[in-house]
Specification:
mainly alpha, Tetrahydropterin Synthase, Chain A, 6 helices, rod-shaped
Length: about 160
């Protein structure tokens, strides 16, 4: 027979609280108060069933924790944000690499595409006087121009 049912229910609730939160992560503890309350309520209801009492509701009012635990949680949250940022950056880098590979393939298949891209880049530099543009000309092209130049010179001499 239970003489002080309020005290006993509080004891059962505390014991149930320890059982329930012992199986949860810290993040779950902070975000799932309602679920924790339902689980504790079910435990207490089961334990007090034979007393003729019914548990109508149980609410967690506050979760207090030591400062060291708060600091640890803050570091964990910061590390989690860094992890997500790193993953997002890596996914962006991967997409950029795929796009660059596709662009390189397109430019390799179409010489005109490379010339257009070069012209777009030069146009994007703008008219600022501080911009110096160096255009790399393939050696083969220079040899063709030199050959044409030599041919023209030889023809002039013949005339």
């Amino acid at each position: 027979m239970v003489q002080d049912y309020r005290y006993m229910i509080a004891q059962y609730a505390q014991t149930s609280l320890r059982d329930v939160i012992g199986q949860m992560t810290l993040d779950q503890l902070l975000t799932d108060r309602e679920q924790i309350a339902r689980l504790i309520e079910a435990h207490v209801e089961k334990d007090t069933k034979g007393w003729g009492l019914a548990v109508e509701g149980l609410r967690i009012q506050d979760v207090s924790m030591p400062e060291d635990l708060k600091k640890m949680m803050s570091r964990q949250a910061s590390a989690e944000r860094e992890k997500r940022a790193t993953i997002t950056k890596a996914e962006g880098d991967r997409e950029a690499a795929v796009n660059l590979a596709a662009a390189a393939q397109t430019m390799g298949e179409s010489p005109g595409a490379m010339q257009l891209r070069t012209l777009q880049t030069i146009d994007g530099l703008g008219p600022a006087a501080s911009n110096t543009v160096v255009i790399a000309v393939p050696v083969e092209l220079m040899e063709v121009i030199k050959g044409l130049n030599d041919s023209l010179r030889d023809r002039r001499r013949e005339v």
